Amino acid sequence: MEKTDIVSMTYEELENYVTEVLQEKRFRAKQIYEWLHVKLAGDFDQMTNLSKALREKLKAACRIPEMTIVDLLVSEIDGTRKYLFQLEDGSVIESVLMKYKHGNSVCISSQVGCRMGCRFCASTLGGLERQMSAGEMLRQVYEIQKESGERVSNVVMMGTGEPLDNYDQAVRFLRMISDEKGLNISQRNLTLSTCGLVPQIYRLADEKLAITLAISLHASNDETRREMMPVAKTYAIQEILDACRYHYEKNGRRITFEYSLARGVNDSPQAADALGRLLEGFMWHVNLIPINPVKERSFVQSDGESVVKFKNMLEKYGGNVTIRREMGRDIQAACGQLRRRYMDKSGKKEV
């Protein structure tokens, strides 16, 4: 019989499980939840204020998703830490710890692999292997906080995978990481990035989460976007923007649009002008991202002068425009690169 992923249980679910299934006193749920989500225990034997009998009962019926560090790279440039975790089924995923003046930010993966097929991203080269549980998402943050010895204050769902393609577990993660009984990270410090799955954006808006929604746009017209992102064949830019307006109306949170600049593809002044006109009427922030070079892909990073020109043109339309600071470039901190290298070296085949 498959053991229950206890880390993915909400506090209320754990209370019910402890009283109804394990036939234990209700206060035990509070103790267990604190061990899992505050003290960040990775093993039931660490739960020293539980009786040995209860710990054995938990070991027999439940599991804490394994999250083993198989590689850790530390940037000499900015201290960024890139983790390659192995999961209990042998799958490998990446997570990143980025250190800023305003606090420590962790970028987590939401799927093992990705099926979105974006043509500038290494994460999608092997396709989707499987979905991840909320517990596996949480454990990335927990293990990074334990290994680094530093408090995590911000979490971005921008690693491998499309969070809205794993909708239920992604939303469960967001609610649990911000639970006051756990790490209690403010929802305002949580960001979910999506390539634009329109029905799920509407659904997410109705969840009434105070998170930041980030849209991977990367083009100012559908033709260019289709060249870069297969999902654009299903959802037009205007459909995505309509969903974003609905999200803003429901939550009042400014939308972030991510725009990866590829030389000669989407970085012209004309493209910046078209993007600005597209976003008129929005309360928006555009994050310009010099595209990360991926050996299996043909896209080339825009030069610095083109990036600045694009930014200056876009700012005329009244929104906020930033150029993403490249973190951990010397350790392959871009999504999917470390995992890809590991798979190649180990001879493992991706699905």
Automatic annotation (TrEMBL):
Gene3D superfamilies: 1.10.150.530, Aldolase class I. Its cofactor is [4Fe-4S] cluster. S-adenosyl-L-methionine binds at G161, E162, S193, S216, L217, H218, N292. SUPFAM superfamilies: Radical SAM enzymes (SSF102114). One of its GO terms (molecular function) is rRNA (adenine(2503)-C2-)-methyltransferase activity. Its EC number is 2.1.1.192. It catalyses: adenosine(2503) in 23S rRNA + 2 reduced [2Fe-2S]-[ferredoxin] + 2 S-adenosyl-L-methionine = 2-methyladenosine(2503) in 23S rRNA + 5'-deoxyadenosine + L-methionine + 2 oxidized [2Fe-2S]-[ferredoxin] + S-adenosyl-L-homocysteine; adenosine(37) in tRNA + 2 reduced [2Fe-2S]-[ferredoxin] + 2 S-adenosyl-L-methionine = 2-methyladenosine(37) in tRNA + 5'-deoxyadenosine + L-methionine + 2 oxidized [2Fe-2S]-[ferredoxin] + S-adenosyl-L-homocysteine. It is an enzyme of class 2 (transferase). Residues 100-330 form the Radical SAM core domain. Binds 1 [4Fe-4S] cluster. The cluster is coordinated with 3 cysteines and an exchangeable S-adenosyl-L-methionine. GO terms for biological process: rRNA base methylation; tRNA methylation. [4Fe-4S] cluster binds at C114, C118, C121. GO terms for cellular component: cytoplasm. Keywords: 4Fe-4S, Cytoplasm, Disulfide bond, Iron, Iron-sulfur, Metal-binding, Methyltransferase, rRNA processing, S-adenosyl-L-methionine, Transferase, tRNA processing. Reaction proceeds by a ping-pong mechanism involving intermediate methylation of a conserved cysteine residue. Belongs to the radical SAM superfamily. RlmN family. Specifically methylates position 2 of adenine 2503 in 23S rRNA and position 2 of adenine 37 in tRNAs. HAMAP family: RNA_methyltr_RlmN. This is Probable dual-specificity RNA methyltransferase RlmN. It comes from Candidatus Onthocola gallistercoris.
